[in-house]
Amino acid sequence: xxxxxxxxxxxxxxxxxxxxxxxxxxxxxxxxxxxxxxxxxxxxxxxxxxxxxxxxxxxxxxxxxxxxxxxxxxxxxxxxxxxxxxxxxxxxxxxxxxxxxxxxxxxxxxxxxxxxxxxxxxxxxxxxxxxxxxxxxxxxxxxxxxxxxxxxxxxxxxxxxxxxxxxxxxxxxxxxxxxxxxxxxxxxxxxxxxxxxxxxxxxxxxxxxxxxxxxxxxxxxxxxxxxxxxxxxxxxxxxxxxxxxxxxxxxxxxxxxxxxxxxxxxxxxxxxxxxxxxxxxxxxxxxxxxxxxxxxxxxxxxxxxxxxxxxxxxxxxxxxxxxxxxxxxxxxxxxxxxxxxxxxxxxxxxxxxxxxxxxxxxxxxxxxxxxxxxxxxxxxxxxxxxxxxxxxxxxxxxxxxxxxxxxxxxxxxxxxxxxxxxxxxxxxxxxxxxxxxxxxxxxxxxxxxxxxxxxxxxxxxxxxx
Length: 465
Ligand code: UD1
Ligand code: CA
Known about the structure:
alpha/beta, 39 strands, single chain, binds calcium ion, 31% strand, binds uridine-diphosphate-N-acetylglucosamine, Spore Coat Polysaccharide Biosynthesis Protein SpsA, Chain A, nine-stranded parallel sheet, UDP N-Acetylglucosamine Acyltransferase, domain 1, 465 residues, 2 domains
């Protein structure tokens, strides 16, 4: 008799991700296609982690190096290589060397089923334990079962699973499908896998054949029907990628609305799962909020704004058509329309950034204004500064970037160029249309432009000649 180690309560998660994903027609491995801003397999790994498993193994094969590399940062995740890819049973066999002699429950997940919740997995574990089953299959009843394995029952009990391609016309009408998610008793599993043959339309080793095998040997086989079939939607094509992405967005939107955020049109609102939005914030149609973004309370974000990895405080108004990436915006500030805040920008409280203004690596002090047509890069701008229309910081000499400093209360006249490195002192003025190449001391007026001459009667003389 073999001796087993580990605890019978141990959970071992295996995620299948070796398949080619032919139907995606992509040079990117299927499981790396993003859903709500993250590779779909990341969502599966996050759900798996919520079970605190003893081990987590991803089976890689097709473009294994790319998948491994993308997941390298994930703690506690091991890999097994399946090469060539001969089917789902063959994929699972590749983890045998890693789990040999272990005991407990093996939870099998698919890298292409990203909506599955931790709650469903906990339900699966509980049902599996309670029935002391050899395998528990997660199933769903769906409107369009096309493409999925069908659950074939006799006398109400699951007898076997038949794949779409191998099914008879009558079997294809069955609407209960295999989600591809299972709990297995680990100890008998690998012996059972060895008995599977590749006698089917695809000539592959089907994991689903374990079910019929266990039934023949009178081992307890159970099913768990999920309430929400959307949760087990698999992604095999671009069209399913779009559908699953939409479901994930809907879920996030519902959560936000339940927490007091107004979405004028949830159908056109795109908010990534990790984004935090405070109550009483109003989000208009066509807004995209991505990555690690935090939006405070009572903000208004108008239509067609995209915000990425940024921090927006409370009562901020963002007018239409702004792009905000890696920036911080303080309370009561106003941005846009048509503003571009680039990384390392900080807009102070009550400050205003108006139309066609770009800020890069720039601090705009509290109450300061840059209302029209400006480029402000590598600039440190104090409080209460007025940056006139068309002001440009000339921060780049073709080789390096240079800083501009504008101190508190300074006034930069319209259409000025500040040729960096340069400093405008506290309360100083820059005359409109100046090309400033030297520092302007506090309280001074810097004026740097050609003097105007008027040629009297010039037009009349021109017309005569
Ligand atoms: C599989 C199930 C089907 C179920 C469906 C749920 C089998 C035979 N069929 O079908 O009953 O309804 O999932 O989504 O199991 N993979 C490997 N190595 C391989 C083949 C596949 O790792 O050799 C991986 C894939 O990368 C994928 C998962 O296994 O993550 C499922 O494979 P896929 O080809 O998508 O199977 P389906 O046809 O969807
Ligand atoms: Ca699939």
